[in-house]
Amino acid sequence: MLRAEGVSREFGSGDAVTRVLHDCGVEVFAGQTVAIVGKSGSGKSTFANCLSGLDKPTTGRITLLGHDLATLDEKRMARLRAEHIGFVLQKDNLVPTLNIEENVAAPLIMSGVKLSAALKRAREALDQVSLSHRARSWPGQVSGGEAQRAAVARACVNEPSIVFADEPTGALDEENGLVVQKLFRAMVKERGAASVIVTHDLDLAQGADVVVRMAKGTLVASGWFG
Ligand SMILES: Nc1ncnc2c1ncn2[C@@H]1O[C@H](COP(=O)(O)OP(=O)(O)OP(=O)(O)O)[C@@H](O)[C@H]1O
After folding, report:
1. Residue 224 pLDDT grade (very low, low, confident, very high; cuts 50, 70, 90)
2. Dist. CA 137–CA 101, nearest whole Å
3. Is the pLDDT confidence value at 209 over 70?
4. Where is the ABC transporter domain (predicted)?
């Protein structure tokens, strides 16, 4: 499903180059949840962004859903995202000019699903994260935790093959954190999808099949719990 080898990422140029990732690799199979853990600043988000194609590594090779990411142009990458990949980003998850149900429906509409059918599925996805009552609210009117649950609903609405989630429970209380954990787990185990989750949440990490620990831009350990 996902394979990365020799991934490094540098920012800046000339004397001001900062190397944030060094020779990182990981393999993710269908039916697996992989948690990426480590201290703040260790490179987790940078690595996850490279794995999902949101960022380009400086060196290394990443194969996602059968595609070498280096060979995909923006248009093909956008299509792969809309049809097969779910994202929960660390911030700025929702489009402020769309209401909550429109935000959740967006990946379906981009994949060509009719508006009425997309909105219906969006409301079902919102129901799964106990957010039906917020369907017509605007992102500016909901709490941080509600926005995060809406982002989780949006990431799962198109039944993606793989979900990348950066701190998906960071703004949630224990109960809602558990709801999100169960949703991801069901998606992975029942549909044979995969998820890659950057997290500081120990419960979420312990529920993963594989935990990858990062320190100073390198992978220092990985453990199998499946
Ligand atoms: N665009 C950028 N330009 C320069 N440095 C960057 C850039 N993006 C990230 N970095 C640096 O790379 C390092 C790793 O950042 P990253 O966000 O990947 O860490 P993280 O482990 O996800 O942290 P956190 O848990 O706090 O979210 C940090 O020192 C950060 O300042």
Report:
1. low
2. 8
3. yes
4. 2-225
- 44 close to ligand 1 (CB < 6 Angstrom): yes
ipTM for the assembly: 0.96
- For residue 38, which atom of ligand 1 is closest to its CA? 21
Report the atom number in ligand 1 closest to the C-alpha of 46.
18
Please state the domain count of the chain.
1
- The domain that holds 102 is classified in CATH as 3.40.50.300
* Tens-place pLDDT, residues 78-106: 889 888 999 998 777 899 999 999 999 99
Nearest CA to ligand 1 atom 31: 41
Say yes or no to pLDDT of 20 above 80: yes
Residue nearest to atom 2 of ligand 1 (CA): 11
Which residue has its alpha carbon closest to ligand 1 atom 30? 41
